Amino acid sequence: MPPLPTMTHSSSFLLPSSSPPAPPTGADAENAVSYAVVVLNQRLPRFAPLLWTRARLRVCADGGANRVFDGMPDLLPGEDPDEVRVRYKPDAIEGDMDSVRPEVKEYYSSLGTQIIDDSPDQDTTDLNKCISFITRNPPGPDNSNLFILVLGALGGRFDHEMGNINVLHRFSNTRIILLSDDSSIFLLPKTHSHEIHIERSVEGPHCGLIPMGAPSSSSTTTGLRWNLDNTSMNFGGLLSTSNIVEEEIVTVTSDSDLIWTISLRKHT
Amino acid sequence: RCASWTSEAPVAVGDADQIQFLKHSTRTRATINCNFSEHAPCPMEPHHPRRAPTAAMDPPSPAGARPAMSHSSAFLLPSSATPAASADAYAVVVLNQRLPRFAPLLWDRAQVRVCADGGANRVFDGMPELLPGHARDDVRSRYKPDVIKGDMDSVRPEVKEYYSNLGTKIADQSHDQDTTDLHKCVAFITDNSPGSDKSNLCILVLGALGGRFDHEMGNINVLHLFPNIKIVLLSDDCLIFLLPRTHTHSIHIERSVEGPHCGLIPVGTPSTSTTTTGLRWNLDNTHMSFGGLISTSNIVDEDQVMVTSDSDLIWTISLRH
Fold it and tell me: Where is the secretion signal located (chain B) (predicted)?
C-alpha cells in the first residue's frame, strides 16, 4: 500500500506582528498562504486584532458582527473606538440576521460591508454558510493555500460547538482552524499523514488527539510526551488528552479522522 | 402484526419502504402494526436483532426489550418550586473554571460536594461573588467542600489550608497521572456512596465544558466511561449528559429553566439509527455521524422527549438565562 501523502500544519499566523511570516516573492508568491477570518457570536479572543489584520477576507456570522463592533475597541483600548470600528470592518455579514443588532448591521452596511441574508436556509449552521461563502469567493487565486481561522466556535452552547466541529469534517479538504483564548483545534484527515509544526512561543505545551465521531483502531505519533504506537482510541476508552508537545514537529498517522488540539499560551 | 409487542413510545420499524410509522401520544399504550411479510424480520421481536452490530460496539439488545431510563433537570428548579424530597439526591463536583450563576442553588441541595483541585479556588472566590448580599466569610464557611481531590497543582495553598481547617478532606492523588480530575472525583464518589446500587447516584459537574478543548473532551469521555452513572455536565449556557444505547430514554423537559435549543450528538461513534419524539425536527430511524448529519439547533416542542438509538448519544439542551 502506497504511503499516505503528507500534510503540514503551522500556527505561524499566531506569531506577533513584529515577526510576521515573510512576504512571498517569486515562485513562493503562488504558494503564499492567505487567511480568511470568520467571527461567530461569542466574546472575541485576545488575539482577534492580530488575526484580523493578517486576513485578506473577514466575515462575521450574524451576531459575530456585534462582537466585532463591541469587542475590537475593548481589545485596543489605547485607540479611538470609532477609528477602530472603521479599521476593523467586516467584508461580509452572513447568516439569518436574527442576532446582529440593527444599528450594528446599519453601521457596517453604510461602510460598504456586504450583508448576506440567508434566513431561508435553516439546514446549515452559520459557520457552514460562512465557509461556503469564503470558498466561493476566495481571497487568493484559489483555495489551495487558504486557511480559514474561526473565532467564537468553541465554548458557549454545546450543540453549536459540535455543529462547528462537524463543519471541519464536512469541509475536510479546506484548512479550517477553530480558535479560542485557550485552544486551537483542527482536523487531521485520515487520508494524510500529518506534520504539525509547533510554534512554542505561542502554543503548547498541552495537546490532545480526539477521535471525534468514530473510533480509531490505530494511531501513531512522534514528538509527544506520551506517543501513540499503533494505539486504538475511542470514547469509552482511551483518548489522548493532557498530552505534552516535546518536539518542534509532531507527526500523526491514523486510520481515522482525528481532531488535533493544542493549548494557547496566555500572552498570545 | 406483531401481536406481542406493545409500547408506550412510538418507534420506527424496519426499512423505509416497509415502515408504517405510527405517531401517537406517549401517554397511551398502543400496539405497533408492522407491515412486514412473514419473511421479513420484524425488528421489534426479541428474536430478530434490530441491526447488525458495528465493529466497535457490542451487539445491541433488541429494541423492544431495552429498559427505559428517565431523565429530569428538577435539580435546576428554584428552591421554592421544588417539593421536599422530590428531586433525587445528587453530588456536586466543581472543576477549575468560573462558576455558573446557579452554583449556589445546586450546592445547597447536594448531598456531597467535591472540588477537583483548582475548583476549590473557584468556590472560594466565586461563591461570595454570586452571593454579594452576604458576608464573604459566612459564604465561604457555608459553601465548604466536603473533599478536595486531585493532584493539588492548581489549588492555592491558602485556599487548601482554609478549607482543611474547616474540616474539608484533602485527598491528594498526585501519583495518578492516568486519569483526569473528573474521573478521580467520580470514582471517589462512587467508592464512597452507600450501597452497591449506583443507579440512583446523580453527579452534577460544574466547569467541565468550555476552557481547554482537550479537558472538555476528557470530561465527556468520563460520561462514556461511567455509562451506568447519571453524570450531568453544566455550564451557564447548557447541560449535557449521556444517553446510553442500552436504554430507551425519556427526557422530561423543565421548560421554566431549560430549552428550547437542544441537540443529539454521536460523539464516539456514528449512529445507524436514532428515533425521537418531542422535537421540532424529530429523527426517524435516522443515520447520524460527524461528516454527515448531527442534530444541533433542534427545538424541544413537548414536555417529554423520547430517544432511542443504536449508539451512545450525548443529549444537550440550552439553559435559560
Answer: none
Shared domain for B231 and B95, answered yes or no, is: yes
| Structural domains in chain B (count) | 2
> What pLDDT sits at residue B1?
27
Does the pLDDT value for residue A143 go beyond 80? no
Q: Model-level pTM? A: 0.86
Task: Kindly tell me if the per-residue pLDDT of A49 is higher than 60.
Answer: yes
In-domain check, residue B98? yes
CB A111: neighbour CB atoms within 10 A?
Answer: 11
CATH code of the domain containing B93: 3.40.50.10240
> Do B171 and B71 have their domain in common?
no
B212/A contact by beta carbon, under 8 A: yes
Is residue B33 predicted with pLDDT exceeding 90? Answer: no
Q: Would the CB atoms of B298 and A154 count as touching at under 8 Å?
A: no
Q: Give domain status of residue B18, yes or no.
A: no
Range of the structural domain that residue B302 is part of: 60-82+237-321
- Subunit contact B214:A210, Cβ cutoff 8 A: yes
pLDDT value at B40 more than 70: no
Does the distance separating the beta carbons of A235 and B213 come in below 8 Å? no
Tally of CB atoms within 10 A around A224: 20
Nearest CA in chain B to A168: B291
In a domain, B191, yes or no: yes
Chain A partners within 8 Å of B292 (Cβ): 170
Determine the residue of chain A that is closest to B177 in CA distance.
Answer: A242
Which of B180, B221, B291 faces A235 most closely, judged by CB atoms?
A: B221
B43 touches chain A (CB under 8 A): no
**Closest CB from A156, A185, A236 relative to B225:** A236
Test B316 with A158 for CB contact under 8 angstroms.
yes
Contact (Cβ atoms closer than 8 angstroms) between residue B290 and residue A212: yes
B266 and B302, same domain (yes or no): yes
B161 and B271 within one domain: no
- Helix then strand then coil, in percent of chain A rounded to 5, is 25, 30, 45
Going by C-beta distance under 8 Å and a sequence separation of 6 or more, which residues neighbour residue A138?
A34, A36, A57, A146
**pLDDT higher than 80, residue B80:** no
Positive or negative, the Cα torsion across B223, A209, A262, A72? negative
Calculate how close chain A gets to B269, using CA atoms only, in Å: 4
Domain boundary among B183, B203, B236: B236
Q: What is the CATH number of the domain that holds B269?
A: 2.60.120.320
- Which residue of A62, A121, A124, A158 is the best one to mutate when testing the B interface, meaning the one whose CB has the most B CBs within 10 A? A158
Alpha-carbon distance of A72 to A77, in angstroms, equals: 9
Both B76 and B98 in one domain: the answer is no
Class of residue A251 by CB neighbours under 10 A (exposed 0-12, middle 13-18, buried 19+):
middle
B111, B91 contact by CB (below 8 A): yes
Among B214, B266, B291, beta carbon nearest to A241: B214
Q: Identify whether residues B118 and B224 lie together within a single domain.
A: yes
Residue B44 lies in a domain: no
Query: How many beta-carbon contacts under 8 Å exist across A and B?
Result: 135
Query: At B198, is the pLDDT very low, low, confident or very high (cuts 50, 70, 90)?
Result: low
